[in-house]
Amino acid sequence: MSLKSAKDVWDYLKKEYAGDERICGMQSLNLIREFELQRMKDSETIKEYSDRLLGIVNKVMLLGTDFSDCRIVEKILITVPERYEASITTLENTKDLSKIILAELINALQAQEQHRLMKQDRISEGALPAKHQDHDKDKRKFIKKFQASINEATASTRNQGKGRNSNRGYPLYKYCGRTGHPPFKCWKRPDAKCNKCN
Hints:
Structural class: mainly alpha
Number of strands: 0
Number of domains: 2
C-alpha cells in the first residue's frame, strides 16, 4: 500500500514471491526432493497419483528447471504397487519403455485398474445368490422344526380330548401369547421379515 507506482509494486511482488536465482534453486531442489519421495498409496488410483506427481513437476518447471516426461514415466514404473505388475510386464514385452509416452503409460495402467474393478464387482455380485441359498436352507430347517412341534402339539391336544376348541392344534406362542397361527407367521417374533423386501 505504501508503494506509489505500478512498477514499484511489481518489483516488490517479484522480489517477495519469486525471489532471486538462489531462492528459486532452493525451491526447485525442495520440490525435486518431494517428487522423489512420492509413493503411490494402496487406496489411490493411477489418475490421483499421476495428478499429484504432475502438480509437483509443474511447480518445478515454473521455477525454470527442466523436467523430462521420461523421468516421470520412470518414477511411475518404479513406485506403483504390485497389482500393476501385469501391465508393466506387458508394456516391457511389447514396447521400448525408454520411448514410451506418459499418457500411454497412464492409459495402460488405468485400463488394468478398470478391469480389476469390474472383476471385483462380478465377484461381489456372484456372492449374493449364495447368501440367499443359505437363507433358504435356514428357512426350510425352521419350517421342519415348526411342523414337528405342531405335530407334537396336535397329538397332545387329541390325547387331552380338547378336540375342535384347540385352535387347529397350534401351541401357545411365546412372543404374542396367542394360539391359532403358526410361529413363523407371527409378526411379533424378533426375526420377522417381509416376504417381498426382507
